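Forum: Protein Structure Q&A
Topic: Joint prediction for protein chains with partners

I've read a bunch of threads here and the consensus seems to be that you should model interacting components together rather than docking separate models afterwards. I'd like to see that in practice. Below is the full input, 511 residues plus whatever partners are listed. Could one of the regulars post the assembled result?
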Amino acid sequence: MAEAAAIAAESLAGSKARAARTVLGQVVLPGEELLLPEQEDAEGPGGAGERLLRLNPGARSRVRVVCGPGLRRSGDRLLVTKCGRLRHKEPGGGGGGGGVYWVDSQQKRYVPVKGDHVIGIVTAKSGDIFKVDVGGSEPASLSYLAFEGATKRNRPNVQVGDLIYGQFLVANKDMEPEMVCIDSCGRANGMGVIGQDGLLFKVTLGLIRKLLAPDCEIIQEVGKLYPLEIVFGMNGRIWVKAKTIQQTLILANILEACEHMTTDQRKQIFSRLAES
Amino acid sequence: MEGAMQVDTQIRTEPGAEAGPGGPGCSLRHFACEQNLLSRPDGSASFLQGDTSVLAGVYGPAEVKISKEIFNKATLEVLLRPKTGLPGVAEKSRERLIRNTCEAVVLGALHPRTSITVVLQVISDAGSLLACCLNAACMALVDAGVPMRALFCGVTCALDADGNLVLDPTVKQEKEARAVLTFALDSVEWKLLMSTTKGLYTNAELQQCLAAAQAASQQVFRFFRESLQRRYSKS
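Posted by a regular:
Agreed with the consensus. Here's the joint model:
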């Protein structure tokens, strides 16, 4: 059994704290510890755990590192809390370490985040606020004044069951989320009640992020297929409307299927559809 | 040092799906795991250990009943459904053990006033059921993206009349055993999260079982990693 303990000790040392730079794009698991580039020099393989005494410890923290979803800070350490691929974005200035690190996970449940654009369903009207279901743990509130051109006299025409495309103004773990359908200038900017007809369906949050990426070829391909109206909510909801019901259904099925297809498979499908 | 390395690599070369004969009784039955197989829950997993099979579904962070709301953390609920009939006292006791284990690793403070529900359905029981439930619950929680401090796994040890240790026992081995011990261990420091025992054993035997469970847990965690990597290789 001493041998077993030795194995445990060995692996314990072996799996401890990998450098964040070396695992970029790889799968990380909850509980793993990551080392930032600045910590690597001191604690990396060469350092053998022996930290150099710094004369000016305040000077090194000039690089700004932001922990995105799936990561948390515990003192000096960077810990993983979700399973997924580790991603990194260089800071605006470029170079020199720092930037944003986050874990790209394939989650289905949405957790409201400030500034996110989402599709909600109005579930109740009470006095001067609407309750909107956004798929989170509690319904978001939406003031009737938070629409373009709305005044106390001129109420917006919103019924229970309507679809709303809006943005989170308040979203944190301790407060009720609050939505608005206007930007800071008071303009609708595409937000508001989504028209009649069309089809709403749900996909994973990972797929939404993939589709909304600036260089996503799926959307361009889909746009070439039929003329369409489409709305993506960061909460995993997609609303789509084409000229006929048949076209709408085809589009919905393609978007749903896109998640587990390779680029080649997608090209095949799109070329086959373009022919028919 | 050299010897330890060798043993370590030997375990690593063993295919995760099939545990080879590591020693007399010190091997686990083969594992299998499938994730995201149910469409309605936020996370789901089925876990197989030999012929024992458990299906798990996780809902959360979701809306919580006012009566169960906790103002500074998530309410964790575990429901264990037996293969047939209604859950009884034995299931309730296991539910509690699993819930306490989950509570130790889930970062509930990040989602206050919400509920996280884990539903476990026993598909077949061929021994080491609690360990299999723990493993299924862990994989389903990871699949749902619930924030966690670490992964956890369950390992069952049985001591027979002669004091021989059997890891991951079958129903027959469990029945013949003098003592059956189940441990839950975390993936960061291999520390004990939960233990439940039945039968008579000495202090030394407990330590021996714990050390064996720790060694076995690494095999399980390695399997978890492979299984999760396979899931994410598709995207």
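Chain B is about 35% helix and 30% strand.
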